[in-house]
Design brief:
Layout lengths: L6 E9 L5 E9 L4 E5 L6 H9 L4 E8 L2 E3 L11 H4 L3 E4 L13 H6 L3 H4 L7 H13 L15 H13 L5 E5 L7 H16 L3 E5 L3 H7 L2 E5 L3 E6 H4 L2 H7 L21
Parallel strand pairs: 3-8, 3-9, 6-7, 7-8
Antiparallel strand pairs: 1-2, 1-4, 4-5, 9-10
Helix pairs in contact: 5-6
């Protein structure tokens, strides 16, 4: 029996009211598959992720989530989106909106990922607590559950926010440049987390400029620069010619341990 994709895009375009956006998107993401979204600054990577969430209007093509066809879902937590409200999609943005000085524990931060499933007038129960513990174990921070969030390192806070996203038990996880600014230990922990999620059948779409990451944990690569330029298996897409076309005008190095344009950050 063929398992339907978690996400399917056909000729999709997402465009801001001012005209900037990304178009020509053809993509299937299956359960347990990790897809790297690669392109230069302003290429439309973040726009695509926000389009999937319904934060940027879909202006062409179709999007299907879990077999449900139609417009992109409303933002997570907004009433009217069955996919978002049920926790089907989780999102880890580039920058956290949570003030590290706010007096709250890591465990309480992660519990926030369960709130949209609780509804009004219901307190977290055993299942919610178990989901939080499981999410913290997945990112390797279970022993720090009671630690004040502001006392964690930057990399640990990033993993804690990932645990918050995972606490909703999503089918599709969207990651926007999750490796920016991480030291090697937190980077390795995040790589291990993505591998674990794949074995559990979670689909992952990660925006990154890191070719090494794509090779380590991703099955598929999509190159974008305003429009989709190429997509397919990592070894077939990450060729010097394709990457040079995508990063036109920028210095490109390509080997098994190289970042595209060191220090480059995608948007």
């Amino acid at each position: 029996m063929t398992v339907p994709p978690v996400l399917r895009l056909r000729g999709a375009a997402f465009t801001y009211p001012g005209g900037a956006g990304v178009s020509g998107l053809q993509l299937d993401i299956s359960p347990g598959e990790a897809v790297a979204l690669i392109g230069p600054n302003g290429a439309g990577k973040s726009t695509l992720l926000k389009g999937i969430l319904g934060l940027v209007p879909k202006t062409a093509g179709t999007i299907e989530l879990g077999g449900a066809r139609g417009a992109a879902p409303a933002p997570i937590g907004r009433i009217g989106s069955a996919h978002a409200a049920s926790g089907m999609i989780a999102f880890l943005p580039q920058s956290a909106e949570l003030d590290p000085d706010f007096p709250i524990s890591l465990e309480q931060v992660v519990m926030q990922g369960r709130y949209r499933g609780l509804g009004l007038f219901r307190w977290p129960g055993r299942a919610d607590g178990a989901a939080v513990r499981h999410a913290l174990e997945t990112v390797g921070l279970a022993e720090l559950a009671r630690r004040p969030f502001g006392e964690l390192s930057g990399g640990q806070r990033q993993r804690g926010l990932l645990a918050r996203a995972l606490a909703s038990e999503p089918a599709l996880l969207l990651l926007d440049e999750p490796f920016n600014g991480l030291d090697q230990a937190n980077r390795d922990a995040l790589v291990d987390t993505i591998r674990t999620l794949k074995t559990r059948g979670v689909a992952v779409l990660v925006s990154t400029h890191d070719l090494e990451l794509a090779r380590l944990v991703c099955d598929t690569v999509v190159l974008v620069n305003g429009t989709q330029l190429a997509s397919g298996p990592v070894d077939e897409v990450l060729t010097l010619g394709n990457v040079q076309e995508c990063f036109e005008g920028l210095e490109v190095e390509l080997d098994e341990h190289t970042l595209v344009v060191p220090g480059h950050e995608g948007h």
